[in-house]
């Protein structure tokens, strides 16, 4: 082929322009990622774009950056992007390209987890339900139908990313990409086909030619060219299977998710910091928090069974976008401390020294400059340690279950158990001046059920069918209806209806009358029995089955059964005579009439009343409310309601179930950060609704015309106490250890209005009950007031000089400043 020389020059110029100005080279070896020739330590955090709104993204990204992150990681959510085969949606908060561009604008890197299996406590693990119905398909294994769909979707996302120049190789933010997810844990369940599939995934991914490395989480036999990474609460002992792969932690579980009926989990900042410091002490070079902002499972996106609407995850940025303090601040300081050693840690020579009792000093020495960086860890759960590194000169107090970071192996720059960040006590404010009567008035409509009460569905079968096979999850609801002819009335007057269901919730009606309900405790199958009375002649049995999120995890989770599949359903009459009606003629109807008629739409309601019905099943409620002033996040309190779904101005904010109460025991009075974390540790909110407050994103609200909240109440509730609040910081408390720079900050434009307590000395107690210790600097309070009162934020240097207390003894470990202030 011939080509003109001027063309060659233009092309050459274009390529060199790209190469010089934008392309970022990402490579790696066993020591670290190497970005544009520099060995890097990367702190990253997961933020799932559909779990917040476009309007929230910039603020969340900024908070991640301010928190010392280098990168943001997210999955791609296949089921939302391809709701129907080859019909794509990348609008609004599904605009992942915009999300990544915002990350880039903020100067951060990004990690792209295409999955396309997501897990993520996301409905059906992120698989579209139409996949489930494709003939011959088997998900996540060596199956041609599935592999074809997976490869088409993966290429679609990669091509969109390439078009938008999102990969670092094109000058974009994406430095790493992932294929499949945590397959290593469940591969055994698929036999040899699983192994073949995993290898195919690797080849398919590598063939996409994205110019940045690929990884697989928890795949300890990851093929050549793919980095296997760790997911877990602690990853210090993890080693990648390939010696040329850097040690990376793609999911540091910073908290935990919550199911309906569970207590709220809490993982302390001290323990998360400990896990991170241990990881870097042991050669880690990339840490991604799962989650950095958890957010909200809007609509019916929550996985299952029973994943709750709030996906707060106890993450550093809370569900609403507020800082979760002290966790956010403590980790910010940890990131800064570890970054001091970036050069030495990624290219140094490591030596460990054992002090006994699980105390270890790890020294990294730069091979080039001779510079040193140390971690001094105490993995003992109970015993604090005082460690002399140098003939009595350097005595370090290393509390139990903590790591001290020593810059130059001499200067303590951080200890994971010494928290120098404020605790923010959040409050939910009710501004009644915006609701003149202080109460909401309600309009309501019953769910129309004439058809289903008469047994009239859309199609019939002589079998009890699986729920999601029929609904394809377009609704939580499926009606199963049949008619039974009774000749001998006396045998069936006092009978029992017995239904075996695979879950999750069942309501039953006989001859148009409600006869009982039951829900599964944790989302598995159950047997429901209720007394019924059948009459002579035709009897109509109507069953409404509801799902609460489809399974998202486990071997072949996609095949987990829902609904009354197979039953059996029996009627038990006099003398235990049993009639199996599983194979009667069953009539089916998918979804609610109210869903079809769009009763979640504000225009469907006109007049309202002060006395809406209470405890009424299958009822739609609507109320009008003004937008709370200011910028603080808005929540709606649904205590008193039963179970259902909520919409704001026609947009779903998720399922609600405040009548689902968390167990009344198992909450720790004192949360001890020491010892290995597990989800049962440090629970709170025992005996209360597992979720009472529901996030109302401000972008769902109208500023002038007012707003409509619609509730579909499935099991019966009382809307009298439903109210709107804003979430903001009430009180802030902090301890600052000697030498620290303590930052205090209110939220938004609010200022510190009162210093309730301040003591530099050896103060005792906790937030809300601080006390002066055996001594204090006399002017503690006046000094703090001068620095902080009336300010949005302030910095306090916790030193003897600053508090004019140079005369005091040298009790270094006990000197600290305690402050309690009001915003
Ligand atoms: C340290 O540097 C020397 C000389 O450059 C090199 O031969 C050696 O392999 C390096 N050691 C390590 C552990 O990198
Ligand atoms: C580093 O530590 C050594 C002794 O451990 C000390 O002599 C030196 O001054 C320190 N350097 C810096 C920059 O702090
Ligand atoms: C309550 O709402 C009124 C009217 O919108 C506003 O002026 C006031 O500042 C609000 N108060 C608080 C505490 O937010
Ligand atoms: C129905 O059966 C229950 C127990 O199985 C019994 O207690 C009740 O008296 C019976 N009622 C009638 C009307 O037979
Ligand atoms: C019916 O069955 C139940 C439980 O299976 C049993 O306890 C009861 O005694 C039986 N009644 C009769 C009349 O057989
Ligand atoms: C119902 O039909 C299925 C499938 O034909 C069969 O396996 C089952 O035994 C039947 N059950 C009853 C109670 O007849
Ligand atoms: C509403 O709140 C009041 C006061 O806290 C309480 O007594 C009442 O039980 C609540 N009603 C409902 C339906 O939750
Ligand atoms: C505090 O004031 C008292 C009396 O004015 C004085 O005796 C004491 O030394 C002061 N303490 C400190 C720590 O400055
Ligand atoms: C310093 O510590 C010693 C021993 O723990 C104690 O006796 C002394 O009172 C402390 N001094 C101050 C100023 O707290």
UniProtKB/TrEMBL annotation:
Question: What are the protein's UniProt keywords?
Answer: Glycosidase, Hydrolase, Signal
Task: Supply the EC number(s).
Answer: 3.2.1.23
Q: Which reaction does it catalyse?
A: Hydrolysis of terminal non-reducing beta-D-galactose residues in beta-D-galactosides
Domain of life from the UniProt record? Eukaryota
One Pfam entry for this protein is: BetaGal_gal-bd
Q: Which family does it belong to?
A: Belongs to the glycosyl hydrolase 35 family.
Could you tell me what this protein is called? Beta-galactosidase
């Amino acid at each position: 082929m011939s080509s003109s020389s001027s063309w060659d020059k233009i092309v050459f110029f274009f390529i060199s322009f790209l190469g010089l100005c934008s392309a970022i080279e990402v490579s790696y070896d066993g020591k670290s990622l190497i970005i544009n020739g520099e060995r890097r330590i990367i702190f990253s955090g997961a933020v799932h774009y559909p779990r917040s709104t476009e309007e929230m993204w910039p603020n969340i990204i900024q908070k991640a950056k301010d928190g010392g992150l280098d990168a943001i990681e997210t999955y791609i959510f296949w089921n939302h992007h391809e709701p129907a085969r080859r019909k794509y949606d990348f609008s609004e908060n599904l605009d992942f390209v915009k999300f990544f561009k915002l990350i880039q604008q903020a100067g951060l890197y990004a990690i792209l987890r295409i999955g396309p299996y997501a897990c993520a406590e996301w409905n059906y693990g992120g698989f579209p339900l139409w996949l489930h119905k494709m003939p011959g398909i088997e998900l996540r294994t060596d199956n041609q139908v599935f592999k074809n769909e997976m490869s088409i979707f993966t290429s679609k996302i990669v091509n969109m990313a390439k078009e938008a120049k999102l990969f670092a190789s094109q000058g974009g933010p994406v430095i790493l990409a992932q294929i499949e997810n945590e397959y290593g844990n469940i591969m055994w369940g698929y036999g040899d086909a699983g192994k073949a599939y995993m290898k195919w995934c690797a080849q398919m991914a590598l063939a996409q030619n994205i110019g940045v490395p690929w990884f697989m989480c928890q795949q300890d036999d990851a093929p050549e060219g793919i980095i296997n990474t760790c997911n877990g609460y602690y990853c210090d002992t993890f080693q990648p299977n390939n010696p040329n792969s850097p040690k990376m932690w793609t999911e540091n579980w910073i908290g935990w998710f919550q199911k309906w009926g569970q207590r709220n989990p809490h993982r302390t900042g001290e323990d998360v910091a400990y896990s991170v410091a241990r990881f870097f002490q042991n050669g880690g070079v990339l840490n991604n928090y799962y989650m950095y902002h958890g957010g909200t499972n809007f609509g019916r996106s929550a996985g299952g069974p029973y994943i709750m609407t709030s996906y707060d995850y106890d993450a550093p940025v809370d569900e609403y976008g507020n800082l979760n303090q002290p966790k956010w601040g403590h980790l910010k300081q940890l990131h800064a401390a570890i970054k001091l050693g970036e050069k030495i840690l990624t290219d140094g020579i490591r030596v460990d020294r054992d002090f006994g009792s699980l105390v270890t000093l790890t020294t990294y020495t730069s091979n080039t400059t001779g510079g040193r960086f140390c971690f001094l860890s105490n993995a003992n759960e109970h015993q604090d340690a005082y460690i002399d590194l140098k003939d009595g000169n350097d005595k370090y107090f290393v509390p139990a279950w903590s790591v001290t970071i020593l810059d130059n192996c001499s200067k303590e720059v951080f200890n994971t158990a010494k928290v120098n960040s404020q605790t923010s006590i959040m409050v939910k404010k009710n501004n009644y001046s915006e609701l003149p009567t202080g109460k909401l008035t309600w309009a309501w409509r019953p769910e129309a059920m004439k058809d289903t009460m008469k047994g009239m569905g859309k199609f019939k079968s002589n079998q009890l069918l699986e729920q999601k096979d029929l609904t394809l999850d377009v609704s939580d609801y499926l009606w199963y209806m049949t008619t039974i002819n009774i000749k001998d009335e006396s045998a069936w007057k006092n009978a029992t209806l017995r239904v075996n269901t695979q879950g999750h919730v069942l309501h039953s009606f006989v001859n148009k009358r409600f006869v009982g309900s039951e829900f599964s405790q944790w989302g598995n199958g159950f047997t429901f029995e209720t007394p019924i009375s059948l009459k002579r002649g035709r009897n109509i049995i109507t069953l409404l089955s509801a799902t609460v999120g489809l399974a998202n995890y486990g071997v072949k989770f996609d095949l987990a059964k829902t609904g009354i599949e197979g039953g059996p359903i029996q009627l038990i009459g006099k003398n235990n005579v049993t009639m199996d009606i599983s194979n009667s003629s069953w009539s089916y109807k998918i979804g609610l009439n109210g869903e079809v008629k769009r009763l979640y739409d504000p225009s469907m309601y006109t007049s309202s009343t002060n006395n809406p019905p209470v405890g009424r099943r299958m009822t739609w409620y609507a109320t009008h409310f003004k937008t709370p002033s200011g910028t603080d996040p808005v929540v709606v309190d649904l205590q008193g309601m039963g179970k259902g779904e909520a919409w704001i101005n026609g947009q779903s904010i998720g399922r609600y179930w405040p009548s689902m109460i968390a167990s009344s025991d198992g909450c720790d009075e004192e949360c001890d950060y020491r010892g290995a974390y597990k989800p049962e540790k440090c629970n709170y909110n025992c005996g209360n609704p597992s979720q009472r407050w529901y996030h109302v994103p401000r972008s769902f609200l109208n500023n002038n015309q007012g707003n409509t909240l619609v509730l579909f109440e499935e099991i019966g509730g009382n809307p009298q106490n439903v109210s709107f609040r804003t979430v903001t910081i009430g009180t802030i408390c902090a301890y600052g250890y000697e030498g620290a720079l303590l930052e205090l900050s209110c939220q938004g434009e609010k200022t510190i209005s009162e210093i309730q307590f301040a003591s530099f000395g050896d103060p005792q107690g906790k937030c809300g009950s601080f006390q002066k210790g055996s001594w204090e600097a006399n002017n503690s309070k006046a000094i703090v007031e001068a620095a902080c009162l009336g300010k949005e934020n302030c910095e306090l240097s916790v030193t003897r000089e600053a508090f004019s207390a140079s005369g005091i003894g040298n009790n270094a470990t006990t000197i600290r400043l305690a402050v309690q202030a009001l915003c």
